Each structure stands twice: as structure tokens, then as C-alpha cells.
Amino acid sequence: MRYIIIGAGAVGGTVGGRLAQAGREVVLVARGPHLAALQEHGLRLRVPQGESTHRLRAVDGPEPLGELRADDVLVLAVKTQDTVAALETWGDVPVAGGGTAAGLLPLVCLQNGVEGGRLALRRFRHVYGVCVWLPSTFVEPGVVSAAGAPLTGVLHLGRLPHGTDDTARRIAADLADAHFEAPVVPDVARWQYAKLLGNLGNALEAVSGPVASEEARALFARVRAEGEAVLDAAGIPYAGAEEQRAARGDKVTLVPLDGAPRGGGSSWQSLVRGTGTIEADYLNGEIVLLGRLHGVPTPLNELLRALANRFAREHRAAGSLPVADLVRLADEAVRV
After folding, report:
1. Mean pLDDT computed over 233-246
2. What is the pLDDT of residues 277-325, one digit of tens each?
3. Of 136, 238, 257, nearest in space to 193 by CA
4. Going by C-beta distance under 8 Å and a sequence separation of 6 or more, which residues neighbour residue 75?
5. pLDDT digits (tens, 9 = 90+) for 253-278
6. What pTM was computed for the model?
7. What dotted CATH number matches 190-334?
């Protein structure tokens, strides 16, 4: 199989680089200075085992590839807010022998949240979800790092909306050869919703810095409790904390990397890079949506969604709102 990584940033670049290390054929899709660096210098991947450079084909879209191959796997690793554009770009691309990508090829959603998979199912017939447990960083154009050891990440994988098949097992086997654990599960959404609850802290980290102080941790606990109440009201199952700990164990322990600071999570990195957008609408916003559908108040997640979007839109510095001020705003939001 050939893996086409649509969105070769921190997560996509790490998966693409690791697959290339394992001898799999990989194409990277990127844009701007990152694409230029990939084309000129290759992908530089920094991991605890050392730095490696991979001279992979890098393109800005499907046109340079011509017809896609019947053995291609599309790996969608863009942020959720960029999903529709990516699906529209790749869905109608012809596949050798007849048919289109949307009708024939597997599309693996390597994304946070759950909305990307739902959007994909509107257009693609064979969609696979992944619960992404992969601490990684976009260091600079052409360079990504992943500090996990002994494994780079744990990627629960399954068909959407549910089920497993031979394609999922073949992809999982390739990932297993590439320093990942990739359990194939029939209920991948249950793992994705569990990860979503953890990702509710992404916006908090983005606007106020690491969730490290007692005050920040207490606020995150309140934000997460809102999310759990919403999922329970909606009847949506999610893997519990003990089950997650048992699945991950000490398989992905962060190791300091020279020249590649871990920094913050995906939302924090979006602010640092000044992309102008952030995925809070599909993390905290997912809880807000479900809360409105099922009559559960979600003032804290609504506040974080709005603040994160404002920070991205106005290019504010990541972590620049003191946590004490955020707690005050949160208390005011609850009282309204």
C-alpha cells in the first residue's frame, strides 16, 4: 500500500516519517514553506532514537500524482476546520482502472474529535477513524518531532461508524512496524469520545498555558465534568480512565529531545504558528452542540471555544491570559 498523508504537519509528518522508516511508500501533502522545505531538504523527523531525513515525494494536492492507485490509502491529518476543503479536493480524483477516491479508496481520519469522520462519511464510502494518542510537534518547516518512547504513539483504529475489516488490519500491521501500537477495534468512536474529553483542555492550554497549577487543574476538571455530563445525557459511550490507562500503560513516555522542545498540544501550536484558525469548534464546540441538543448547560466549554477562536483570529500569544483571569471569567459564565 502507498500512504498519501494529507496534511503532513506534526501528527501527519510523524506518521509518514515513521512509515517511511519502516519501508512503506509514502507521499506527503503540504503547502507553503513546509512544502518547499520538504521538497528541497526532505522530511526531518526527530525522535528519541535520533534524527533521520526522509526524501519523500511531497506535493500540494492530487494533480502532480495523476491517477491514484488502487492500493493507495489516504490519511487525512489536517485539522478538522480544514477537512471539508481536503475532502472536496481529493474525493473526485480518478483511480486507475475506473472509479474515484471517494468510492474506492480507504480514508483514514487521523484527527482529534469526531466531526472529521462524520464529514468524511458524507463523501467517502470507506472511512476509518483513529483515536490519536501521539505527542508530536511541528518544529519548523520540514521538521517534526515526536518524543514518545518506547512507542511513538498508540492509535486505536476501526471503521466508521463501527466495525473492522482486513484493510484496517493491514494498516494496523504497517503502523505496528513503524513504532506504533494500533489496536483494531470495532468501536473506535468510543475511544475517540474518550480522547475528546481530554482534548477539552486544549483550548485552556492555548489561552492560559500549561494545565499545571492547582487552579488550572481544578478548572479543567470542571470543563471535563461538563463534557462527561453531556455524553452521558446523549447516551454516547466512551472508554473510562482505567481502560485507557490499561491500554496505554507506559508505552508512550515523553523523552526530552535536543533542539525539539515539546511545547504544547495541537491548539497551542496553532496559536504559536499564527495559523489564524483553531480546532476548538470541534472539541469544546462538540460538547456545546451536544449540550444544546440534549438540554445540558455547557457554559465553560462555550467560554473556552469562544476565547480560543478569538485568540486565533486576533493572533494573540499562546498562553497569555492568566489562569486566575480565566477562572474569573469561568465563574461569571456559570452564574449567567
Report:
1. 95
2. 999 999 999 999 999 999 999 999 999 999 999 999 999 999 999 999 9
3. 238
4. 3, 4, 5, 6, 12, 15, 16, 108, 110
5. 999 887 666 668 889 999 998 999 99
6. 0.95
7. 1.10.1040.10
Say what angle helices 299-313 and 201-208 make with each other, to 10 degrees: 50
Instruction: Identify the CATH number of the domain defined by range 2-186.
Output: 3.40.50.720
Q: Which residue is associated with the grid cell 475528546?
A: 196
Q: What is the mean pLDDT of the chain?
A: 96
Query: What cell was used for 243?
Result: 481502560
Secondary structure of 194-213 as H, E, C letters: HHHHHHCHHHHHHHHCCCCC
Residue with cell 512507542: 151
Place of cell 473526485: 92
Residue found under cell 526527530? 46
Residue 253 is given by DSSP the state E
Q: Which amino acid is located at 170 in the chain? A: R
Residue 68: strand, helix, or coil: strand
SS3 43: strand
Phi/psi class of residue 284: alpha, beta or left (left: φ > 0; alpha: ψ in -120 to 50)? alpha
Q: Where are the domains of the chain?
A: 2-186, 190-334
